[in-house]
Design a protein that fits this description.
Layout lengths: L3 E4 L24 E2 L2 E2 L2 E6 L4 E5 L9 E16 L2 E2 L5 E11 L7 E9 L6 E7 L7 E8 L6 E24 L3 E6 L11 E8 L5 E9 L2 E9 L4 E7 L6 E11 L5 E4 L3 E5 L3 E3 L6 E3 L7 E8 L8 E8 L5 E10 L2 E8 L7 E9 L7 E10 L6 E3 L5 E3 L2 E3 L2 E3 L6 H7 L3 E4 L13 H13 L3 E5 L2 H5 L3 H11 L5 E7 L9 H14 L5 E4 L22 E6 L27 H4 L7 E6 L13 H13 L5 E4 L16 H18 L3 E3 L9 E8 L2 E8 L5 E6 L7 E4 L4 E4 L4 E6 L4 E6 L2
Parallel strand pairs: 22-28, 32-33, 32-39, 33-34, 34-35, 35-36, 36-37, 37-38, 38-39
Antiparallel strand pairs: 1-13, 2-3, 4-6, 5-6, 6-12, 7-12, 8-11, 8-12, 9-10, 9-12, 13-14, 14-17, 15-16, 15-18, 18-19, 18-20, 21-23, 23-26, 24-25, 24-27, 27-28, 29-30, 30-31, 40-41, 41-42, 42-47, 43-46, 44-45, 44-47
Length: 747
């Protein structure tokens, strides 16, 4: 369903007070439709719970709904959609009883889900249960966000388990009559001439009403005879002037007296440019694929005119603005979308521009353009080599990146980061048009900076099985020279998608883009079901794997894999089991910590901890490092000084200089004494050898390493401006708590 701008409208003097109305269907859960209460259905996200109507337990009436979960789950009883308006305050309550719910595992929760139409949307917490009480009422208020036209109620387990009973749900609003002003993607198109307004008549009111829409200060009045039906649509004639943002208000007046009854505060809607060209599909063409086939998508918002449709032309220009190809277009609509295939024949490698021109009868000609390029296949492909490292253009890449990290791109390039991770720029929402231009601009910025992109697949489309939209996004960027690998994260682990969905993602990528690997930051099942962290990856669906390791501050704690934490009983820095006990030879990258955990005691890693974590991951075989995070919740870019951003950049520079060794073989190195808290490994090339050593413990210690009698008698400690003597090939050194040393050895 298209995004909707919703504006509340109040009609004074209604015979029914909306505050006394309960808008939820079957609030007592007494009416049954098949196995479920009428108007309600189970929603399982991950491990499914068991839902049943229980005739032996009730808060009021004769029954309740029982939810039983033997494993950690996100499972809810979910209501049918309730029409609402943006900005409307809604009071929500429900009664719940719990049994055998653990006190420290997730929540029993009442949730408001805000959406467009019948799709799953964003959610807000209403209230959580006190697990020590019997029947209790959960209650709270929520405000409907902008762009939402419906509300659903969810009640059940959020990352918890046990038994709950639910009964007597209430959803109350203040107003008996409200209105929705609907538009395509919250946009106004000048040539349409009207806007649809839907009246939500909760009190079944009849009579005459004036609806006044005011756009950019100009009022447009429409008289409406209320029919008493719950939803009544009215077309309101308007004239749309100007571009960019337009202020919008809606007002209701008594048609008989003209008295103003209510007027909304102004909100804004967008009037698009007359002509927009989206990024071409694909943004680049590989020369080896033969004559190009370019799909050009246009969005039109021309001014109204007697003559319609229009004619247009599309041109392909080279870097000297010489025309390579031209096609005339006829039947161009004044509003909406148009998709055109451009077949220019073979063109050489180079940079080009696609230009569309419309000679508009209502005014001057309008144009739009997009860059487009032809590249060699070597520029638009990467592969995992035999040692498990990515190669692009014949060069091996040792990945040093950060999640959501474009805010300080220049500093990152100077430090030696080489991976840009796109999450926000690549994010999509089911049922909505994606912001392709934002991602195209970000990818081009990444390319200009000389970085490689780890590009998130459009997961929002995959989880809702919108496969055409999913495939379109893959086709658009599959040949972009910045692309290093596709990325999928936590869909299965969180329960947002079944493993079959991930398998289809993999299949589409193989069909549409066999030239780039898939990085999977995900588990083979819902994460709560995986007890063996060494066997957690969906091996058949990935070319590379990655998971998270966020241990700081070190303290005893339970397993919380989604938060990068494994069960710990002490203060040793333990490497993650998904790396140390891995059951695959496929490459594994490690997401390392550069963020401040929420809650009491949360902090950023210290410079010492940054080095220890990175080198300990490398010692245990990590084949890439991705710091979490940049511009994310608690991320380093939110407070660079507190996050020790300068020291983290220095560490990355050090690792960049060592990367020729890190893409070679790494061998575990024995440490003396045998019970030492120091871990070590050797990395080498034919011409150089280094020893990586990390003290995992909170106490200072001394450790020795046998590096060979033929080694130099003195070795340099990288980054410390000192040397260590090595009598008879035995290197002995002191380590501060969590201290790290890197020794430059003889070949």
């Amino acid at each position: 369903m298209l995004p909707t701008l919703l504006l509340a409208a109040v009609l004074a003097g209604s015979a029914v007070s909306a505050g006394n109305m309960n808008l939820v269907s079957n609030p007592g859960l007494e009416s049954i439709d098949g196995p479920n209460p009428a108007g309600w259905a189970p929603l399982a996200m991950g491990v499914p719970a068991q839902f049943a109507v229980d005739n032996s337990v009730a808060h009021d009436g004769t029954q309740s709904v029982r939810i039983d979960a033997t494993e950690v789950t996100r499972s809810y009883l979910r209501s049918n959609p309730i029409p609402v308006t943006a900005g409307e305050i809604v009071e929500i309550s429900a009664w719940v009883k719990t049994r055998d719910v653990p006190p420290d595992q997730g929540t029993v929760i009442l949730i408001a889900e805000f959406s467009r139409g019948d799709r799953k949307g964003e959610v807000g917490k209403v209230a959580t249960a006190d697990r020590s009480l019997e029947w209790q009422q959960l209650a709270g208020r929520v405000t409907i966000p902008s762009g939402c036209d419906s509300l659903r109620i969810r009640m059940g387990f959020s990352y918890s388990y046990g038994t709950t009973w639910w009964d007597d749900v209430r959803v109350s609003v203040l107003e008996p009559l409200v209105a929705q002003v609907k538009s395509d993607a919250n946009r106004l198109y000048p040539a349409t001439g009207s806007l649809p307004v839907i009246l939500l008549n909760r009190a079944a009111r009849t009579g005459s009403l004036d609806v006044t829409l005011t756009l950019a200060g100009e009022p447009f009045k429409t008289k409406v005879n209320l029919s008493g039906v719950p939803e009544q649509q009215v077309e309101c004639p308007v004239r749309i002037r100007g571009r960019d943002k337009v202020g919008v208000t809606i007002a209701l007046s008594d048609a008989a007296t003209g008295d103003r009854l209510w007027c909304s505060p102004p909100s804004q809607m967008a009037v698009p440019p007359p002509l927009v060209m989206l990024p071409p599909i694909p943004t680049h063409w590989a020369l080896e694929d033969g004559p190009p086939i370019i799909q050009v998508e246009l969005e039109l918002a021309l001014d109204p005119a007697p003559q319609s449709p229009q004619s247009a032309r599309i041109e392909l220009l080279d870097e000297h603005s010489e025309r390579v190809f031209m096609r005339d277009l006829t039947g161009v609509p004044r509003s909406g979308g148009l998709c055109v295939d451009v077949l220019p024949g073979r063109v050489p490698v180079g940079q080009y521009r696609l230009v569309v021109t419309i000679d508009d009868s209502a005014g001057p000609a309008v144009t739009a353009e997009q860059p487009w390029g032809v590249v060699s296949r070597s520029q638009a492909s990467s592969r995992v080599n035999g040692e498990g490292y990515l190669e692009k253009g014949g060069k091996i890449v040792f990945p040093l990146g950060m999640f959501n990290n474009t805010a300080r791109l220049k500093e990152e390039v100077e430090a030696g980061f080489n991976i840009v991770h796109f999450y926000n720029a690549a994010r999509v929402r089911a049922g909505e048009r994606p912001d392709d231009q934002r991602l195209a601009d970000a990818m081009n910025q990444c390319l200009a900076a000389g970085m490689h992109a780890l590009l998130m697949v459009p997961q929002g489309f995959a989880t809702e099985h919108e496969w055409s939209a999913f495939t379109r996004r893959i086709r658009m960027f599959r040949n972009h020279p910045a692309l290093l690998a596709w990325d999928e994260e936590e869909g299965v682990a969180r329960g947002d998608m079944a493993i079959e969905t991930l398998q289809r993602i993999r299949r589409i990528l193989r069909e549409e883009d066999p030239h780039h690997p898939l990085m999977v930051g995900d588990a083979r099942d819902v994460i709560g079901r995986i007890t063996d962290r060494g066997n957690m990856f969906p091996l058949g669906e990935m070319d590379l794997g990655m998971w998270w390791w966020y241990p700081f501050p070190l303290k005893p704690g339970p397993d919380a894999a989604l938060h990068g934490q494994e069960a710990s009983g002490g203060l040793l820095l333990e490497p993650p089991a998904f790396l140390t006990r891995r059951n695959t030879s496929k490459p594994i990258w490690v997401g390392v910590q550069a963020y401040k955990k929420p809650g009491a005691g949360g902090r950023y890693p210290t410079p010492v901890e940054y080095r220890a974590q990175a080198y300990l991951a490398l010692i245990h075989g990590a084949q890439g490092l991705m710091w979490y995070g940049g511009s994310v919740t608690g991320g380093a870019f939110l407070n660079p000084q507190e996050a020790h951003w300068t020291e983290l950049r220095q560490l990355v520079s050090e690792l960049r200089d060592l990367s020729p060794l890190l893409v070679g073989p790494r061998e575990g190195t024995a440490v003396q004494p045998a019970d030492s808290t120091v871990a070590a490994a050797t990395a080498r090339t034919p011409n150089r050898r280094v020893l990586l050593a990390v003290n995992r413990g909170p106490d200072a210690c001394q450790a020795s390493f046998q590096i060979g009698a033929s080694s130099a008698t003195v070795v340099r400690v990288i980054g410390e401006n000192r040397e260590v003597s090595v009598p008879q090939g035995l290197l002995t050194d002191s380590f501060a708590p969590f201290g790290t040393h890197v020794y430059d050895l003889a070949p």
